[in-house]
Structures are given as structure tokens and as C-alpha cells.
Design goal:
Order of helices and strands: HHHHHH
Low-confidence stretches: none
CATH architecture: Orthogonal Bundle
Number of helices: 6
Number of strands: 0
Largest sheet: none
Number of domains: 1
Strand content: under 5%
Length: 143
């Protein structure tokens, strides 16, 4: 019984430790998906496929992440300026963590490139996210 209790406590601590990164990951995915003004089914499925591969989902349920993503996209559609500012604040905290910053930028890359051709707006958003994360856009150039 004590073993099960300790395991539950460990899992909850892990969730608390990684919650901010999950929210930053969803913020990046939403900003990338909405860069061209359209959040289509390709972006949603790509985001879901990409996210399902990440180890963070040993701790979090993918449905929880997709709910956060949907809420972020809805916020961007409702009030682009205010929502962008809130999402940027979630992301900017990882500028001092190069490994996590690169992971976030790679997630943006995957979402932006999922539907084929990259638009000028998507390229600009990728570069903006790179700068926000303290990275050079060329660190992970869009192809």
C-alpha cells in the first residue's frame, strides 16, 4: 500500500515539475499552427502525432495536451494580440534552457511544415519564436 502511495506522489510531483513545459509546448504549437491564420486538420493531427512521441506523455495524458492546444487556438482566434502575449510569456521562460528551447523550436518546425509548403507568415513566425527562445533561426532552419 505504501508503495502505491509513493508512486502516486512521485507521479504528481513529476506532473507539477513538467506542467510549465507542457503549457509552453502547447503555446508553441498553437502559435505555429495559427501563423498563417488557419488551424487545419493537418496541423491538428501533426501536432497530436508529434506530441504523442514525446516522453512528457509518460506523465501527461495526450488528451489533456490537446485540450490546452485547442484552448490556445481558440484564444488566438478570439483576441490575437492578447493571446499571443500570454502564449509568448509561457514560451519565453525557456530561453535560458537551450535543450528545452530547441525542443520547443523543433515542435514549431514540425507543426509549420506538416502541411507541405511553408508560407512567408509561417517562416516569419518560426523566426520570431526562435528569437523569443534565444536561438538563431538558422539553428533549425525551415526547409
Amino acid at each position: 500500500m505504501a508503495e502505491g502511495f509513493l508512486q502516486a506522489v512521485r507521479r504528481e510531483v513529476e506532473r507539477l515539475q513538467h506542467r510549465g513545459f507542457l503549457e509552453a509546448l502547447m503555446a508553441v504549437a498553437a502559435l505555429a499552427a495559427m501563423a498563417d491564420g488557419d488551424y487545419g486538420i493537418a496541423e491538428k493531427y501533426r501536432a497530436e502525432a508529434l506530441l504523442s512521441e514525446l516522453p512528457i506523455f509518460d506523465v501527461f495524458d495526450l488528451r489533456e495536451a490537446m485540450e490546452i492546444l485547442d484552448e490556445d487556438v481558440f484564444a488566438l482566434r478570439s483576441d490575437r494580440v492578447a493571446a499571443t502575449r500570454r502564449l509568448e510569456n509561457r514560451v519565453a521562460g525557456y530561453a535560458g534552457s537551450p535543450d528545452r528551447a530547441r525542443t520547443l523550436l523543433r515542435a514549431a518546425h514540425a507543426v509549420i511544415t506538416c502541411d507541405g509548403a511553408t508560407t512567408a507568415a509561417e517562416q516569419a513566425e518560426f523566426e520570431r519564436l526562435a528569437r523569443l527562445l534565444g536561438l538563431e533561426p538558422d539553428d533549425l532552419a525551415l526547409a
